[in-house]
Amino acid sequence: MFISHILLENYRNYASLDIDLSNDVNIFYGNNGQGKTNLLEAVFFTVIGKSFRGTKDSDIIMAGKNEFLIDISVNDDITENIFIKYNKNKEKYIKVNSLYLRKIGQLMGSLLAVVFSPEDMNLISEGPSVRRKFLDIAISQVKPTYYFDLLQYNKVLIQKNNLLKSVKYGKTKMYDGIFSVWNEQLASVGAKIISERCRIIEELSKVAIEKNMKIAKNSAEKEELLKISYNSDISREIILENDIEVIKREFFNLLEGKMQKEIEREMTLTGPHRDDLEFKLDDRDMKKFSSQGQKRTAILSLKLAELELLKKATGRKPIFLLDDVFSELDEKRQESFLNEIYDVQTFISCVDINSLKYNKKNARIFEIKNGSVVL
Ligand SMILES: Nc1ncnc2c1ncn2[C@@H]1O[C@H](COP(=O)(O)OP(=O)(O)O)[C@@H](O)[C@H]1O
Ligand SMILES: [Mg+2]
């Protein structure tokens, strides 16, 4: 798939933008603060229905305006057009192929994309929530029902945590099995989430190992074995047997066993909301032992693996959004990275176009200045 046309209105610093795109590579360059990331953010907004930067919708509306609008034309068997409008009354309208969607979740899978931004460079060193977010976005695109499971899980989790608090402060009287109904529901939806995440990670890991070897080799790094795995209180063996009932029972028992501690801490102490991804290089925890360069190579590999996975799982070609990441890569890594992404539509943003080691022959190049394309 590729995006042929983007129209923005009052989206951050774009009063109005209307551009045609190359189905190959599109480069957006310009000084800091001009709107390069905003543009890629708007594209990815049509993938997940919100900002990948975690910005509130209301802060995206151009200062002083009442609503923003994104309208993209897509060349693909399934999706032709995505339209999103959001106004100050917090009303969000989403249309795919001219049909209004009732829920944001129905948007998932309409446009497939992988985004890679400088913040991702810290994916390994940061806390677990960014890694869970990475996983959840990837899986939701491949399997939209997963997104609804996540919503359901988080809803029940909030209700149960409220009850834990209420019991702790004596507002609700404690009795045997008081949390079982909630634990039952958490286990039931959670088992599906855990199983799906674990399965996807196994696949991602397989591809990432090879990409990591390749990029390391080209960069004259030591070729080490990358291993990415899903880390949960339930053992990998049990999860990978893929019997949802067994995972559910296991999860339920864990929850019941932690009841006293959970009341004390006023929170649910085990489950997919606490799970993590683990990165190992030659069996050593990358968080503790790897150099910055090794982490970078591993993250590049992970993003490339995500791209492959979306391709394989859907039979469609996702779009690749690279926000200002090349400035953080040495020439060798730039090269090996670009060699891997020849067949998908790519958006690259950068400050200095001359330092981009890329054959710009096939690219459409846009200079971005103060929320406009310089003509
Ligand atoms: N809601 C908004 N209304 C108007 N301008 C905004 C809004 N949100 C962000 N901006 C502006 O967008 C600019 C940052 O754009 P960004 O795409 O992050 O820059 P870069 O080109 O460095 O990637 C800043 O000048 C900021 O003031
Ligand atoms: Mg930027």
Outline of the structure:
With 375 residues, this protein is α/β, with parallel strands linked by helices. The protein is 41% helix and 22% strand. The structure holds adenosine-5'-diphosphate and magnesium ion.
Structure description:
The protein is 41% helix and 22% strand. It is of the alpha/beta class and 375 residues long. The protein has a domain at 1-112 and 317-375: P-loop containing nucleotide triphosphate hydrolases (Rossmann fold). The strands form three sheets. It has a six-stranded antiparallel beta sheet, covered by helices on one side. A hairpin with a 4-residue loop joins strand 5 (81-87) and strand 6. Helix 4 (180-218) crosses helix 9 (292-314). The protein binds adenosine-5'-diphosphate and magnesium ion. Adenosine-5'-diphosphate is lined by residues 12-13, 30, 32-38, 59-63.
The oligomeric status of these chains comes to single chain
Any idea what the radius of gyration is? 22 Å
Low-confidence stretches: none
List how many beta strands DSSP finds.
15
According to CATH, the fold-level topology of one domain is: Rossmann fold
Mean pLDDT: 95
Helix-strand sequence? EEEHEEEEEHHHEHHHEEHHEHEEE
Euclidean distance between termini CA atoms: 27 Å
Percentage of residues in strands = 15-25%
Q: Tell me the name of the CATH homologous superfamily of one domain.
A: P-loop containing nucleotide triphosphate hydrolases
Any idea of the CATH class of one domain?
Alpha Beta
Main beta-sheet strand count, sense and barrel state: 6 strands, antiparallel
Helical content (DSSP H or I, runs of 4+): 40-55%
What is the tally of helical segments?
10
Bound molecule kinds, no repeats: adenosine-5'-diphosphate, magnesium ion
